[in-house]
Fold this sequence. Notes:
Helix content: 25-40%
Oligomer: single chain
Amino acid sequence: MADDNDIVFLHGQFMPMSEAKISPMDRGFLFGDGIYEVVPSYDAKLVGFGLHIERMQNGLDAIGIKLNMGVDDWRNIAQNLIEKNGKGNLGLYFHVSRGADVKRFHAFPDNIQPTVFAYAFTIPAPPIADKSKVKQYSVTSTEDLRWKRCQIKSTSLLGNVMHFQQGREAGVDETILYNQRDELTEASACNVFIVKNDVIMTPPLDNQLLPGITRNMVLDILRKDGTLQIQERPISMTEVHAADELWLTSSSKEIAPVVELDGQPVGNGRVGDIWQLAQTLYSANKHNY
C-alpha cells in the first residue's frame, strides 16, 4: 500500500504521494477513460516489461489516446520508482488517462494533454514450485456480465470489481466467468487454464478476455519446453468442472493452483504435478521477457 511519503510520478515529475494532485475534470476520474498496466519487479528485476508496455500501447491506440512515450521512457520511470522507493518486491502501476478538459462531455476532446501517473507498491515474494507452500485458491463461477471489449486493459473496471466482490462475498478468492454459450472466458482479475489428461488448455484470445502477459509467457515457456501438449480453444464449463487441474494466471499470482470450484474439489482436491512443472519452468524463465 502506498504511503504519503512514497515517491510517485505525475505530470512529468517525481514527487511525494501527498503532493500528487489530479483535476476532478480529468476524464479518467469522470469516465474511466484510460489505460493501465501493472508490472512486477523483484530485487529491481522487471518481469515481462516490454510485453506490458506493448499491451499498454495497444490499449492506448485502441481508444485513441496519443502519447509520445516509448519503452525506454517507461523503463526510466520504472527504474526511478524502484530506486526512490527502495528495492525489493515492488509492483509498478502505470496509468494514462485522456487528460483533463474544461467541461464534462462524452466525446473525446481535442488538444488536451494525457495524464500520466505511476507509483510503486510492495508485493509478496514470487511463488515457488512447492506444493506444500503455494497458496491454494478456491473460486466460484458465474456468467460474465462485463462489456464486450475485455481485450482492452481499461481503467474502467467496475464490471470486474463487481464480479470479484461476488466471489469475496461468497468467501472465495476469485470468480471464474463464462459467456452465454457456457464457455469459459477468464476470471475477474486473472486468466484461466485447465489441465485434463496432461493437456494444458486455455481460451483463445478475443474480445472476451484480456491478453494477459503472464498467460502469454506461460504459453510461450511451455511450448518451448515441449514436454506437454498445449491447446488454445473454446472450453465449456463442463470441461472446467471435470478438469484435473485448474489455474489462475496474473502478474502478481504467476500460476496459482485452484483446488475448489463452486464448493467442489478440482480433480483430487490437491495441487497437481502439472502445476509444479509449469511453475518451475515459469520461475526459471520469467526474467527473459
